[in-house]
C-alpha cells in the first residue's frame, strides 16, 4: 500500500504548467510540523497535483495557506548535465483540501489588505471599548436583579493578539 496523508502549510505559491496534451500540473512545497521532537522542526515535501485540482490549487492557494493532502509517494529519476542520475521523491496528490479559505491575494493586494486589517482591528477594538463603557454606565444606573455584583465580571473586549500563540507551532 502506498498512501500518504499530510496537513501543512505551503512554502511557496503553486506553479501551474500544462503538458503538451493540455493537462494541467501544479507543484508546490509543503511544510509539516514534526511533533515528535522537543524543538520546533518541520519536514518539507514536494507536492505534484494534476488536472482540475491543479488549476484550483494555482487559483486559490498561496504561500502560508494551510492544506490537507492525500496521495501517494512517487520516485522518479533523470540525468543531470554532468551525466549523474538524480532521484526525486515527491507526493502525487489525489486530493487537496483547503483548510483556510480566501481569495488568492496578489502582491499589491496583500500589503494593502494587511494595512486594512490592522486599521479595522484597531477600529473594532475602539468600538468594543466604547460599547463596553456605555453598557457598563447604563447597567450601573439600573438596579441589578441578579445575585452577582458588577465587579464579579470582567467586561474587557477580547484582544485578537492573545490568540497569536495558537499558530506558534506552525512554521509559517
What does this molecule look like?
The longest helix is centred in the last third of the chain and has 35 residues, at 107-141. Strand 3 and strand 4 (42-50) form a beta hairpin. The chain has a five-stranded mixed beta barrel with strand order 1-3-4-6-5. It is of the alpha+beta class and 172 residues long. It has helices at residues 51-60, 107-141; strands at residues 4-10, 15-18, 24-33, 42-50, 66-79, 85-98. It has a domain at 4-98: Nucleic acid-binding proteins (OB fold (Dihydrolipoamide Acetyltransferase, E2P), Beta Barrel), CATH 2.40.50.140. The protein is built from two helices and six strands, in the order ββββαββα. It is globular and about 40 Å long.
Which CATH C-level class of the domain at 4-98 is it? Mainly Beta
> Residue ranges: pLDDT <50 for 5 or more in a row?
107-172
Encode the helix/strand succession as letters: EEEEHEEH
Q: What is the second-level CATH architecture of the domain at 4-98?
A: Beta Barrel
Shape: globular
Number of separate strands: 6
Tally of separate helices:
2
Determine Rg (CA atoms, Å).
Answer: 24 Å
Structural class: alpha+beta
> Per CATH, what is the topology of the domain at 4-98?
OB fold (Dihydrolipoamide Acetyltransferase, E2P)
* Estimated helix fraction: 25-40%
**Termini separation:** 31 Å
Strand content: 25-35%
- Mean pLDDT across the residues is 74
Report strand order across the widest sheet. Answer: 1-3-4-6-5
Largest sheet: 5 strands, mixed, barrel
Kindly report the name of the CATH homologous superfamily of the domain at 4-98. Nucleic acid-binding proteins
Amino acid at each position: 500500500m502506498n498512501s500518504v496523508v499530510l496537513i501543512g502549510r505551503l512554502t511557496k505559491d503553486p506553479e501551474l504548467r500544462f503538458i503538451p496534451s493540455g493537462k494541467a500540473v501544479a507543484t508546490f512545497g509543503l511544510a509539516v510540523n514534526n511533533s515528535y521532537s522537543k524543538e520546533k522542526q518541520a519536514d518539507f515535501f514536494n507536492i505534484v497535483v494534476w488536472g482540475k485540482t491543479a488549476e484550483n490549487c494555482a487559483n486559490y492557494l498561496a504561500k502560508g495557506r494551510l492544506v490537507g493532502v492525500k496521495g501517494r509517494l512517487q520516485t522518479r529519476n533523470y540525468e543531470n548535465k554532468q551525466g549523474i542520475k538524480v532521484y526525486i521523491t515527491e507526493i502525487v496528490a489525489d486530493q487537496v483540501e483547503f483548510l483556510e479559505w480566501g481569495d488568492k491575494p496578489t502582491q499589491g493586494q496583500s500589503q494593502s489588505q494587511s494595512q486594512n486589517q490592522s486599521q479595522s482591528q484597531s477600529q473594532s477594538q475602539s468600538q468594543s471599548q466604547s460599547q463596553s463603557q456605555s453598557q457598563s454606565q447604563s447597567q450601573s444606573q439600573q438596579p441589578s436583579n441578579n445575585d452577582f455584583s458588577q465587579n464579579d465580571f470582567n467586561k474587557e473586549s477580547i484582544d485578537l493578539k492573545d490568540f497569536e500563540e495558537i499558530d506558534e507551532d506552525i512554521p509559517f
